[in-house]
Predict the 3D structure of the following.
Amino acid sequence: MRFLPRLIILAALGIATFLSWRLLLRSPAAGHRGALAPKVKGFTLTLDTFLHVQQLRKKRLRAFCSQLGEVSTLPRSKKERVHLLSSLRVSTKLDLLYCQVPLTGMEEWQQLLEKLEEKENVTLAVPLPYPWRHTQETQLREFNLTEIEAMLGSYTKVLFVRDPFQRLISTFMQGMGSSPSFSSFVQDVLDSGEHNASVAWKPLVRLCQPCLVQYDYVVMFGFLRQELGHLLRRAGLPLDSLLPEFTDAQVHWTYSWLSEQMFSELSLQQKQQLSHFYRWDLAAFPFSSSFLSDLLSTPKTW
């Protein structure tokens, strides 16, 4: 019986997803709470709009890092580097670096990279200050300081972000916790604290070090296929035919409804504590439509 609430939520999510698809097909002018949301299934994000949006996201991120004075240089200590870079992965064949965060569209992205790495004629030549041997996708922390600095300076760096409250809902529904209700799951998350939090719900700023890694692209959940198409072409990989069938746009719409239902289950104290828990993500990224944003106070220190 402990998982009955989760089953009910999953059933509701399935129904809501179906209704979202019907709405998309029937109502071309359907609205959306977030900015720059696709209005119809055939929505096309132009290159100019994509580049403009990227500039805005990176400008916000730079302002956040400037305000906090966060780490912006690699530590000399290997132990410190291993800790800071634990979520960063690289493809030396494709000259790509990204932060691996569950439930932000990573599954589809990694499937795409696997397909690209399997193609023998896909290799980008980026001059590095040492002899290079292409390897399978691996963790950045496994390389030495010179190699890491070269990769950070020359590779295409991608950061995937998602509304932290929606990440929490997905984590709960995926069964990444033993709590019988969403409210008790949230309490477990809060009790774990920021430093001991699981990767599944740890704040993105903690996992991805966006003030240390100057990401070239900040990709929002809900726009993966549109944004990754432009990203790959600009990275020299015009391989639209290999893009998987992303469903994040429809899921994003559904979660906008589901978030309201599950947010109402939480106490005011839990809502305020969650907003504080994710204060850095809410300040660094454009999550103005998140239910946690309304409770956010301006962060001053870590």
